[in-house]
Amino acid sequence: MHFQYSGALLPMEKVLRDPIHNYIYIQNKVILDLINTREFQRLRRIRQLGVANMTFHGAEHSRFTHSVGVYEITRRICDLFARNYPQVTPGDGLWNDDERLVALCAALLHDVGHGAYSHTFEHIFHTDHEQMTQKIILDPTTEVNQVLSQVGEDFPTQVASVIAKTYPNPQVVQLISSQIDADRMDYLLRDSYYTGTNYGTFDLTRIMRVMRPYTGGIAFDMSGMHAVEDYLVSRFQMYQQVYFHPVSRSMEVILDHLLRRAKVLFKAGKLTGSFKPELLLPFFTDNFTLSDYLSLDDGVLNTYFTYWRHNPDPILSDLATRFLDRKPLKSVRVTPTTHAIIPTLQDLVAQAGFNPEYYTDTNDSFDLPYDLYDPRSKKPRTQIELMQKDKSLVELSSVSDLVLAITGRTSGDERFFFPKEMRGTSLQGQGEVFAPVYREFMQHIKNDQLIK
Amino acid sequence: MHFQYSGALLPMEKVLRDPIHNYIYIQNKVILDLINTREFQRLRRIRQLGVANMTFHGAEHSRFTHSVGVYEITRRICDLFARNYPQVTPGDGLWNDDERLVALCAALLHDVGHGAYSHTFEHIFHTDHEQMTQKIILDPTTEVNQVLSQVGEDFPTQVASVIAKTYPNPQVVQLISSQIDADRMDYLLRDSYYTGTNYGTFDLTRIMRVMRPYTGGIAFDMSGMHAVEDYLVSRFQMYQQVYFHPVSRSMEVILDHLLRRAKVLFKAGKLTGSFKPELLLPFFTDNFTLSDYLSLDDGVLNTYFTYWRHNPDPILSDLATRFLDRKPLKSVRVTPTTHAIIPTLQDLVAQAGFNPEYYTDTNDSFDLPYDLYDPRSKKPRTQIELMQKDKSLVELSSVSDLVLAITGRTSGDERFFFPKEMRGTSLQGQGEVFAPVYREFMQHIKNDQLIK
Amino acid sequence: MHFQYSGALLPMEKVLRDPIHNYIYIQNKVILDLINTREFQRLRRIRQLGVANMTFHGAEHSRFTHSVGVYEITRRICDLFARNYPQVTPGDGLWNDDERLVALCAALLHDVGHGAYSHTFEHIFHTDHEQMTQKIILDPTTEVNQVLSQVGEDFPTQVASVIAKTYPNPQVVQLISSQIDADRMDYLLRDSYYTGTNYGTFDLTRIMRVMRPYTGGIAFDMSGMHAVEDYLVSRFQMYQQVYFHPVSRSMEVILDHLLRRAKVLFKAGKLTGSFKPELLLPFFTDNFTLSDYLSLDDGVLNTYFTYWRHNPDPILSDLATRFLDRKPLKSVRVTPTTHAIIPTLQDLVAQAGFNPEYYTDTNDSFDLPYDLYDPRSKKPRTQIELMQKDKSLVELSSVSDLVLAITGRTSGDERFFFPKEMRGTSLQGQGEVFAPVYREFMQHIKNDQLIK
Amino acid sequence: MHFQYSGALLPMEKVLRDPIHNYIYIQNKVILDLINTREFQRLRRIRQLGVANMTFHGAEHSRFTHSVGVYEITRRICDLFARNYPQVTPGDGLWNDDERLVALCAALLHDVGHGAYSHTFEHIFHTDHEQMTQKIILDPTTEVNQVLSQVGEDFPTQVASVIAKTYPNPQVVQLISSQIDADRMDYLLRDSYYTGTNYGTFDLTRIMRVMRPYTGGIAFDMSGMHAVEDYLVSRFQMYQQVYFHPVSRSMEVILDHLLRRAKVLFKAGKLTGSFKPELLLPFFTDNFTLSDYLSLDDGVLNTYFTYWRHNPDPILSDLATRFLDRKPLKSVRVTPTTHAIIPTLQDLVAQAGFNPEYYTDTNDSFDLPYDLYDPRSKKPRTQIELMQKDKSLVELSSVSDLVLAITGRTSGDERFFFPKEMRGTSLQGQGEVFAPVYREFMQHIKNDQLIK
């Protein structure tokens, strides 16, 4: 059964036109069928970068485009491995092309469990997209599971175990999930393209060419050291310049508070109004099914926000409006030494008429651009190994000064968010009343920093 | 008043990062304020190409990105005109830079009246995005109108008249709306970029450089003839290859039928189910306000479709599912001579269990890539004029064989759409019963054409 | 013998970084050895576009880069053919992968016979680069021949017959030489890239995907019609905008006259001066060997021009200076009706002190962008055939209006070249004396045309 | 006089099409005239990257293209400065647009003194391109000087002093020459484009936008910190991956030895053969004029090498052939600890029949990617200053970990070059005799390193 269906190459390969990879080549019927499932098509309605398009307006691409991109990179690597490093005897550390299908399916599906406005939603409603991905793969009610099961009874479990990183072959796991995997390579290139920045570009073709399977997973030929270095620096840059952008984070803060407010009102029996957000209710009560989860997407949440613009609760309605009409909060950088000033500032915000619980926040965005393998870590990382001519391995940061500079060091910042009104630049209406409050507030800010 | 606000250049110009124009430069406070209006931000929730992302998955960009792009092209042309062809005396046919602000505002707002799934929605609910654009500009309840009114009492009317093509200065009108205008130039480049095709590329910088204001509007320096020719051919190609793609048109057919079915059910009092699509109801009864119109976006419609998946009406529920899960109809080309076969085919579709009213359709996509000015035409076109060294004008198709080939000739095709099931390729379940019907149906099709 | 060497795949494929194709993949030892021959390396010293860099300064790329590009496109097509259309039985019209090596070698070597400043040189010294290519392949003294002979005694003859279009398999011939071949596809993309224009871009990947071998050669799947159309239009545009640029043609005129003057002086025994252009002498006397031919390159000619700057003959020295220091002639368009004015103009040029034989010229640049097969033609063209689903063929211009517009119609213009001084714009020194002559001359010119 | 000519804006600006900057805009007659000088046109015959095209075949661009690119970047920065930071009162640290012309001329001419195969030529013949640039600007016999003198008697001296970094306004000097100047920004982008690599790309538009004139020269707005960081990393990467490529360095070694051999033979009276390399002779005797220097270009040297292929001296003839036919030496990395092995290896090379003086070499390529200002240094560097909102300055490496990692640390390697034959991979002919020598030689090499 397994071989029959998995062997079912399409009579003629199909292509999807893709701005990043030019074409995406679909050769297996399984892959085509997975793309056509309801759960996978739903990814078209979830933006890859959440609210980042509020800062970089071009970044409106969905998780669908990213997912087929990860599939395509994985497929190309499989082709290169099959041609250049085919397994001769089991255990020789080379590539066993029987692993191709499980790798391709895991690559395609790795993000299928993402929910509407993914990270913010998870924060408020305690969901986890990685677990949801596995659930979608394993639950017999999903079309995804039905397609995978045709390959073999055990096949969904295998695919899910790649996501869970428990699949026995480390090469397959590292293809999908490591510090330099198909997932990261696609999103850097894709997010660069759609934002219109070029920080995330690196030489994908060259990196794929220097990848080499070995017993411990995937290593990189020493000749590609600088290409790998360039990839890591690009990743670092994208985090600093795009993913951690203060305006996007501020819109996330608003979204987070908006959902929290709705939940609080609901629990207090105060989410009134003629309209009932049926599709969200199971999440307010922490009692949702997989089907509930799959009914949501960015557009559904936005639709509820559209209703809430007119909700009697002034905070809910104001936050919904700020979110839909893109009225970001302002922010400044906080350091451990200036953290103590925040309560004072929140006080001033309250004096100016804003509930600080919903109109201020601190948010830290930190990333660990690269790290060594550390078995004591909670999620130990697979370090990047370079293979020399004599097949011995060298860890990357030991030969690259640039990489060493970012190894094991988190980068990013913590920011304090507050209403734009506090800057006191437009003193219309009641603004004048609060002018002294605004002035005092602004005395605590200089050069994008809190000061004492 | 007018000059005070319109003269209000921002102390420091703002930039938006854009993949097509690299940066978009915002220099006037009016423009910044217009972008920040509720009505303009709403464009982020309406896709530029409707359902085209079902064929070209990358094309998920919104009308927001296109609108700021049209603004930017217009701004650059104004800069070039002001530098190279400044008016010396009124009526000399050169550029009067006092027209800049009205041109920029019209450029930015030219699409602000687009509705959710624009063309299909208009078809079913008899709305008109150009009229809505003017309404949004002129209605004192909109934030857009409130911003424009600060420039001058008469300013909204002026901007609206550019959209209506009744503004007295033909240069301003042609910048926004002619056979080679800022609108078309932006969408060709942008749609190319996001679809990942390259058919729509042409040399924008060069075309802008050869544009020249003259008494009759805008002409092009003879030295730029080939650049203009290239633009027209690119536009032709984009229509043939992207905008008229049969799969996108098939998804539009489904969307059209889905909305029609809902309307029919509603009018018949049969749109039952626990859920009420409140935001759509005013349109079912042809009795909607501007505010109703502005509450809709692609996501709201998709949300209703999500509910309708589970509607008791089998046609509504099936069409909603086909739309959300991307199950396109199939299609073949129809010619005047083969048109007569369609009823026979619809009959067969009915025999196979599908209501042909909702599961078949013919749809023609024709475009007139370029045409001469014809005063007898309903919408006479401004023909493209080339200016020679001695300032005399020559119409483009008289000097370009390529352009002549597409002048005044519509291009495109008419197609007949039908359920994929009719191809009889997967005879599972009840499929076998209908095998003879399918066979008969397919005998009418050869080489993507209907045959007798 | 043949199979041993040709089968000698490199243990590890080599790659060359290429701006157009990203990487060029070298898999056969034969190809690597051919690239390393003296005759092929010489192509690095001959510019692909001759003097076009005088107009488009970026276009300084050599025939070397183009040649490896043509090889790479051919290799990719072979890969696609071998995967999708492998021969099952001889004569079935599908691809026989035993043809790969001869195709690759012919692709790589198709331009190896180009000489210094190719077309101009040919014009003056009556050489022919296609014949020289075959000679280099067949002559046992060349390194190219020595490498090819290792594949098989007969192999050089086979490769040369592909160049001569007498090779029995039309698929191989058409890959290298037809109206849409690897040669043209590479040069359009490459020349676009290096000139910095974008007129020559088209969708190479898509065209390669729709190519199909058949008994008569190579056809294109009907689904790729628009991609082929786009290619032809791009080619047309590149001719109009780049290859026929008047300034480049004017520099060619100077080069042509400069070489002619040197030849005339030499034949008259008047090419005096301390320096002897040894490497050119065999060509002055029409008595050169293959080795003489291969000693020349653009730099050698330029070096002689550097010497000739100081030659006692004022015409030779002036033309050399104009060429090296880029002082183009001016030009205007001539039509059959205005041709008769030229002698008058030449007279005026003579009156202004320039020998019209060396300082004026007419030059027509015409191209036939696409044509049908015509057995009566001297060089009958392989027309472009589209293959429908039922495998029947349709000729391209019968289904594309755009192509029909350029089919069988030459395009281009004829121009009359004359010294810039005739425009009388800088009347320094003796200029004033000639002012009346200049004025009379310019009365014959209007809107870039000769007028009566 | 000065103002008349410098004010002479062209009636219509001219444009040059450029692949990097799209168009180069020429607005001043001075600039157009400088481009048309003999000395500047000569740059078309000198490759920007010397022999790097032997590794990256696309990199065949000349110093001409780079020079107009540096001009264009400078022009754009002047435009931005003039618009955003115009001087109000002398000494206010803002931009005085009277400096524009001297800045543009210096930018355009900064490389005009480069000679044929620049660095290698300088090494052998003790020339210095920066001094030659100043000489060309100042010497009244050059066309460059004649054009500049028309602006003002003193103008050539001013332009030359910018090159010499003694010009009083530090903003002008730093535009042309600092750690982030128009020169470096152009060559990184251009060399990336022509090599087809993408390591050198960075966000030029953004960097130009954040540049700010101040009393001490040019600073960068803090908001552009990451863009500057990205530029420095790109520069570092280009050095590691392109400029220091071992194959290019090996071709430089051959060129160096070839010129040295010719000089040695000449001095010993042994440079025989029928042909006299007249244009080189003044350099063999260290007694050359500016005119001698300007007669040389890459093609002239190649022409001499073409003659020397047949020179009776076997070393000269072999090296000329290796250079023209691209037969690079091989190389391995040397460290201070393995340096001592080199004499042993040279001995073995001699045993294998090669004169080690001409067939081996060590060559170190080190670059200091970024450094702080150090007044004690021989050439103190202008450190990169970031300007905060309150106008205070912060040095870049104090806020960027990535930059800190490369600050003040040279990067690169030292390599030992030797004939490919020593690897003993092709034991044809006399090869077998030397097999033991080869074996011994190769025992000293492992993983691209010398080992003991």
Automatic annotation (TrEMBL), chains A, B, C, D:
InterPro entries: dGTPase-like, HD/PDEase_dom, HD_assoc_2, HD_domain. The keyword Hydrolase applies. GO terms for molecular function: dGTPase activity. One of its GO terms (biological process) is dGTP catabolic process. It comes from the Bacteria. Keywords: Hydrolase. This is Hydrolase.
